[in-house]
Structure formats: C-alpha cells, structure tokens
Amino acid sequence: ASQLIIDTDPGVDDAFAISLAALSEDVDLLGVTTVFGNVPLEHTTRNALRVLQLCGRADVPVAAGAARPLIHPQAARAGHIHGEDGLSGRSAALPEPERDIEPGGAIKLLVGLLEEAGEPVTIAPIGPLTNIALLLAAHPHVKAKIDRIVLMGGGVNRGNTTATAEFNIWSDPEAARRVLVEENVPCVMVPLDLTYKCAVDAEWLAKLAAGGPIGAALNALTPDYLASYRRSLGWDGIVLHDAVAVAEAIRPGILRTETYPIEVETSFGPGRGSTLVDSRLPGLRGEGEGAGAPSTVQVAMDTDVDGLGEFVLG
Length: 314
Ligand code: BDR
Ligand code: CA
Description:
The protein is of the alpha/beta class.
C-alpha cells in the first residue's frame, strides 16, 4: 500500500475524507496533522481525533499545527457552513478520543514521518496550506521524501469565498503561493470546478447511512451542511470537496489532470487568494510576459463522477 499523510481542518467534508483514508486498504495512513481553517485549531484537532476514533484508528498519530496564517490574519472562518464546532454542532455525537495528540506539533511529526519513510509519501492537504509551507521552508531536505502533494484548493473558473478565491487558498494565500509556486514540489490541485461536479445527493447519503455505523455517524454530521449547500447548489446535496482530493491521493489517476502554469494572488485587491491557472491554449501563453519557465501544477479537471461516488461509498 502507498503511504499517505493528511493535513486537515475538520470540517464536515474533511471528516469524510479522513474516514475514506483511515478505512482504505489501498493506503497506509501514517499520520494526520491539523491546521486552523474552517474553525479554530483546538476544534479542528479535537475533531480529527474524534473521526479517527470513530474509524477505530486511534493508532494513527495526530499532531496540531498552525493556529493562524503565516503573515496576515484570516479574515473569516467557515463556522456558518461547518457549524461553530466544525462538525455541524454534532461533534459530541462522535466517540470521545481515548488518546492525546503527539507532543512537539505538526511540523515535528511531518518531518519524523517523512524521514523514516522507506518510500516517498503522498501528502494530502485539505485545509489552508500553512503547515506545508512551514515544513518546506524549514526542512527542505524532506522534499525528496514527498511523492506528490494532492491538495483540495483553488478554482479555475470559480471561487466560493470571494468571486474568484477558494476558502483554503484565501485563508492563507502566502502559504499557498509558497507551496504551489515557489517550492517546486509536484502538486496535484483539486479545484472547486471539479469538486462541485462531484456533489452527492440525498440518495447517496442514505446509502452511506445504511452501510454501517461509520457511514451513519458521518451522515449524522450533514444536516446543517446540507442546508448551506441547498442554497448554493439549488438542490438537496452536498459537496465533499476534501474527499475528492483524498480519493486521488488513495487511487492515483481516479481524477483526470492537466498540467498548467499557476500563480497565486497575494495582493490585497479583490482577487486576493485566487489561483490563476493558465489554461490558455499553449500558443497564447507566455507571449508578452517575462522570460523564465513558469511553475506548473497538475489540475484535476474531470473524473467519472458516478465511479468516484461509488469509490467514496466504499
Ligand atoms: C474547502 O474549504 C473548507 O470549508 C472545506 O473543508 C474544503 O477544504 C472548500 O473550499
Ligand atoms: Ca477542509
């Protein structure tokens, strides 16, 4: 099985994504690190522990990372979508964690796991990229141990937090720019354009709930999340953004990717936190711009939506 580390801010869709990896036989989940994001760090950390407890995976080490962005404060959280506790106000329904977090914090855990790994590891960041930016800046030697970074974030033709910015990137644009543009590590970006195409409906959730106690517990976290997505989708469904990215981390190739030049907007204009994916036809790129090869990422643009839904259902 390939080896995976998840960096996360649970988050309803994060809870689904963590469970998918924790229960998968195709992947060895080495560790989970937490970051501020949807809700403050103390909540995201507790939620990560609870979700792993639910999955019977208290053996997976958890460590807490950044409580705030690298430079500028996060302007808003997402408690209105994920609930003030991060799990629709229903986190207390999950089992209490029977163990504590690792001492020393997320960066120490990441460095230790990567140094010890026999083969390169996949990292799946599904929250703001602050921990990953700190890791790469302070411990560049671990880059050789990273197979690829498969992240949920950004948008090609849409935003969700502003007209053009997606929440994870917008929460710490400077960190995102470091990871996606400056560090030259192989990245697969799973943007909103694709995650919205993979929205699941009430029937899918009912099947999940009927599948067993873990599915039922995950489904029980969704009522408020459903209500918030009903407004944006216009029908009864939810978008499990982070599970789409973690599916690709578990099963490489389940998403179809295209390689494009990328920039991240860090100025304080209306585009702050946007990903600029250069999907122009190759002949139109680069003309009139400065010399030098641009940074590129693989952007997940498409998938077999029904097949992915079945995969996540397990
Ligand atoms: C991303 O933002 C968070 O609210 C979700 O958990 C996901 O990681 C979607 O924009
Ligand atoms: Ca998330």
